[in-house]
Amino acid sequence: MRVTHNVMEQRMLANLRLGYARMAETQHQVSTGKRLHRASDDPAAVADVRLRQSQLDGLARHKEAANGAISVLEASDTAVGRLGDVLARARELALQGANGTLNPVDRARIADEIDQLAEAAKDAMNVRLGDQYLFAGTATLTAPYAAGTGDAYQGDANPVSRDVGPSVPVQLNPTIATIPSPGTEPLTGEALLGGGQAAGDGRILDALRDLSEHLRGGTDADLQAIRTTDLQAIEANQRVVLDARSAVGATQNRVEAALDRLTDLHDASELALADIEGVDLAEALTKLSSQQTAYQAALQTGARIIQPSLLDFLR
Amino acid sequence: MASTFNGINIALRGLLAEQRSLDVTGHNIANANRTGYTRQEVVRTAAPALQLPQGALQGGMGAQLGQGVEIQEYRRIRDDFLDLQYRAQNMSLGQEATTAQRLGQIEDVLGEPGPDGIGAKLDKFWSSWQTLAGHPENGSARIAVVGAATELADAFRALDANLTAIADNVDAEYAALTGGSGPVAQAATELGRLNTAIRQAVEAGQQPNDLLDRRDLLLDQLSEYGQVSVTDLGSGTIRVNFGDAGAPLVDDTTVTWPQALTSPGGKLGALLTVSGTTIPSYRAALDAVANQITTAVNGLHPTPVFGGATAGTITVTATASTIQAGATSAPGDNSVATEIGRLRGAAIDRGYADVVAQVGSDVGRAERGLATATSVAAAVSERRASVSSVSMDEELTAMIRFQRGYQAASRVMNTMDDALDTLINRTGRVGL
Question: Is there a contact between A137 and B383 if contact means CB atoms under 8 Å apart?
Fold first, then answer.
């Protein structure tokens, strides 16, 4: 093919342009550390990266939810534990009070303490975490037992749930077996303390109020009632409280396991994402170095070839 | 019998031929860097020989005495087939370049991957619902949901507006290129005039090399805009058909422009495709995603959250006080927020990722097409240049040749002159 200086120059320019563009692209990758800057760099990878970033974001939110859930469950466990203490003390007092040798003043004092225990139980159920009452069902802004409303429960009986993984809900107020059996309810103030003597449901407040009443009464029938029905009621409630504690504990274990899985999944996803969109620095730097060398060689040889012509040699 | 002064004529013819050749060499060198210049060369032929009658040679035969050189033509060295190839490749190049450029603009406004694209806004939107599900009593979580929803709707509308703006820009460019003062109109008018001038020259027996160069250059430039096909009409004139226009663009001296085009190829074809097919398809895909968001979220939330079902019309109609975390009015009910949070990673996110992948692969294909078209066009251009472009070394060498030829011819002239001088002034002067 007949090659003229026009042809030479155009070829050289085209090759220099290509070489320079390649160098610029590699330099951009090295300086940002990313392989993907535009959707056209690798369309399938860019779509994949988009979905993975969304997934990572979701995992972070689930971790937050799981941590929140663990706080709630720990606080619930503490509160229910206090109920257990209340019931243990009430049982002691019941046994004490059932003794026929006590005089009315002493029995009255015991009855006072029982009333205080009832208030302590209500305080335990009124525990809050942030804005949220933990034992009010979904009526989380209402105290389960309010000062002016006596023993009446103010909340509702709905389950409260949080997602601790994609479509993995956990019930923060786990369902427990309640009195009278075989009933089950989500764990609320109602489920444990009940509505007091007005409701007559045999739950903690009802049992304690009955006990206090019998102590103040002091008749033989009352003392007999203390020895039988009241003690049985207290023991039944103690079983319910134990059941509640183990339910809360089991739920907490489940959430902690979920949190571990989430953390692992989060770390693995971050690694995978960096793999897909990150650039291998060593490889990119090597490529840049060889492209630079090629570009310089093109410049030097081109300069050497396009300069001389016949004019340099004619007289 | 040859004339006495025959030799001088022969020398003169030689001088003139060398002079014209030097002129052509000078023309070539002067125009070496002009775009579209085709190198010319002098084609010489022997002048008609003088018939010497019978008896001129010993043995009684006649002979033909050479009478020097004559110039037959100033030949333009060009390969028409390469022109055809070049124009076809130039059309592809124009098409791919425009497509790549416009799709690149679309990719830029899409903004993926990046923190400002719709994808990031979607993430933020789902996260705001998940946070609300974790704190359903919290008023600032609701404000955050409305904020994220507003950003998402704004991002959709902005992208749709940008796509529309690009489409309008493409339409404007098309109108400018095909308008009465655009490059196509100007090229067509000039081609008509050139046809007239070339016809006049050809009918007078001349060869209008430079006019032909100009006409070929115009056709090359025109081929970038659309498909150009040329028919020879005789007497040097041509008919030019442009794109898929019904009537010929230039038919001898008749220019028909503007005309409507549907699929002309080249730059104009690319502009029509981008504005008429590509951008509408992207807008439709985005509309589908926006519609999915509106439908899904409004379907789960008791009151509408979004209004408008296309990317260009989607807005947020809910406020912080109308956002509900749950289906009931209980403050701890987070059923609605949980359900909406679970929409993450499902059809909506995948639909958007598909749009991004589609745009990316279209741009990638256009860029690869551009790279291929560029290198093929460069190869054909090189071939054409190899045939038609001026080589300085060749011209300088030829120049030396013609210079020596001129010197030799003038020396012949001198010799003839001396011979005649002897004959005229010194013959017959016996003893003087």
Answer: no
